[in-house]
Each structure stands twice: as structure tokens, then as C-alpha cells.
Amino acid sequence: MILPIVAYGDPVLKKKAVEIDKDYPKLEALIANMYETMYGASGVGLAAPQIGLAIRIFLVDASPFAEDEDLSEDEKAQLKDFKKTFINPVILEEEGDEWVFNEGCLSIPDVREDVFRQPKIKIQYQDEFFNTNVEEYDGLIARIIQHEYDHIEGVLFTDKLSSFKKRLLKGKLQNISKGKIRVDYRMRFPAMSKKR
Q1: Tens digit of pLDDT for each residue in 6-43?
Q2: Which residues make Cβ contacts (< 8 Å) with residue 99, sequence separation at least 6?
Q3: Is 75 a catalytic residue?
Q4: CATH of the domain at 132
Q5: Catalytic option among 36, 95, 128, 148
């Protein structure tokens, strides 16, 4: 089932999410719905706060980046096969010289900005069967994970921009929170939630 994606301005996007255990109600259906929602919006990652749940879960499918002509065959193969569910993740390490990449977010449609992040991460998480894993990633996969991880920490990519950039985006972000934007996927806007 495709769920509405929560838009910029909703308080759930600024909350630090809480851990869950394997008895979380209807977890398997939730994960399936999150994947369907992400694919329906042509996303490469989706975190639970983006569907209104302040819990520590996000998923990533990096395969759309495998089409990038600028990547090596090794990088394309790595991206093409990367699909994972991260439950209760903790980034243990981030290292390397920061690099810039133009990021966007399903909760902030039509806004793309350059964001600096470190290229390598080490992350501990549980998969959908609640097996604990510790893995290292770099490049685009690390970046997607860092972006989604920020969501469960209550951080948006726009929070990482300079105050000058934020001022330039202010009107656009206010319009998104009021639902004054056209998107080709279901969204839930804060302004509409208050009217109920």
C-alpha cells in the first residue's frame, strides 16, 4: 500500500526517532508498504518519519544510481544490487575528506542543493529478521545511508545548508509546508493536517 509522504514543516520530521523491537506491530507489512511508497515516488531511500512514524527504520535501494554514465563498472554493479532495510541503526564512524553531492528529498520536493558529507561510514543495524550487522560503506551508498540516518535523528538535508542558502529557500519551503506544490506522488502537508 502506498502511503502519503510527510512534507517539510511536519513536526515528525524534526523528532529523534525511537528504537523498535521485533514485536513492533505489523512490521513486515510496514516494511513492504515503505518499499512500495519509495518506489511509487521514484526514491532511493525512505525513512519512517517520512511516513509519519518516529521510529528508527529506513530503507535504501541504490539501483537507480547504477545508470550513471560517470561511474565505473564496479561502482555500477555495487549500486545495482544494493537494497537493504536498516532497523535501529547507529553510525559508529564517519571518515574521510568531505565531498559534495547534489541531494534532494521526497519530503522536500523540487529542492536540490549541494551537501557536504564524509565519504566512508561504519554502521551497526538490525535487518528485517533482527539479525545485527556491522558494515562499512563508501561513496554514494554511504551518502544515501547518511541522508536517511539523518531523518531518524530529526535532521533534514536543508539543515546542513548555509544560512544564506536557507534564506534563499525560505519561500519555497513555506510553500511546500502549505501544500502549494505539484508532485506526482501522495503527500501529507502540515497545513492540511491542522485543518482536521
Answers
A1: 999 999 999 999 999 999 999 999 999 999 999 999 99
A2: 116, 117, 118, 119
A3: no
A4: 3.90.45.10
A5: 148
